[in-house]
Amino acid sequence: MRKAIDVLIAAAPDAIQLTVGLAPLLQEIPGRNKPSLVLRTDVANVYGKDLPRTLFSRMIQSPVEQALRLDATCVVVNLFQIPNQPEVADQCVQNILAIKPECDRYGMPLMIEPLVFQPNTIAGGYMVDGDLKKILPLVRQAVEMGADIIKADPTDDVSTFHRVVEISGRIPVLVRGGGRAPDNIILQRTEALIKQGVSGIVYGRNVIQHANPAGMTKALMAIVHDGADAVSASHFINSLNA
To answer: Considering only CA atoms, which of 64, 84, 67, 72 is closest in space to residue 16?
Structure first.
């Protein structure tokens, strides 16, 4: 993780999302020229092909105070919708209801991550469901509970994602990267999402697991911040591979 974070810092993304245990790897680095910290405030056991008998999503203690001590710029919490797991959804709601007043008290932006899952027996492991009709009401619920930022999965049909942006109203929407995919698919999807009105992206494995994470980061930043298209952005990957 230290090596991965060093590589990403050199690529200069706006922020890196980390857990409370890994955040010091970023914040111990001296100087001002490093990405901001987005702190993950909950822990869950809902991922994996073989799930345990009981699922949970629990929040760390005093999440905003821990975020302040770590000099985080934002905190993020999940809002799961998992088939036949209403108890996990309730835990997520309780987490949000608990953290929201603390975020308001300290002026800490709250990112809510509404995630719709497919049945584990069908999808297994990652389980993301890109059905617009399922995503919209969950995003709306996140907005109603006071999200300052929405972090959502892309829809199966990227051309419909403007509906997610619209239902979020004044709240900026960031899009998750999803499972590993070829470079051209990731870049083309990102270009299409930006054209649909999203404010930014939050990509994990398509950067961290990439053979050239710095090049991929720069390519994605070019699309998000500079309006580059997928073809021109791919040159960052190729040039840094040379």
So the answer is: 72
Distance CA 48, CA 68 (A): 32
> Domain limits of the chain?
2-176
Three-state SS sequence of the chain: CHHHHHHHHHHCCCEEEECCCCHHHHHCCCCCCCCEEEEECEEECCCECCCCCCCCEEECCCHHHHHHHCCCCEEEEEEEECCCCHHHHHHHHHHHHHHHHHHHHHCCCEEEEEEEECCCCCCCECCECCCHHHHHHHHHHHHHCCCCEEEECCCCCHHHCHHHHHHCCCCCEEEECCCCCCHHHHHHHHHHHHHCCCCEEECCHHHHCCCCHHHHHHHHHHHHHHCCCHHHHHHHHHHHHC
For residue range 112-156, what is the model confidence (pLDDT) as tens digits? 999 999 988 886 666 789 999 999 999 999 999 999 999 999 999
What is the tens place of the pLDDT at every residue in 44-63? Answer: 999 888 888 999 999 999 99
CATH-assigned architecture of domain 2-176: Alpha-Beta Barrel (3.20)
Contacts 24+ apart (CB under 8 A), 45-54: 46/80, 46/82, 46/85, 46/88, 46/117, 47/125, 47/126, 47/127, 48/125, 49/120, 49/124, 49/125, 51/120
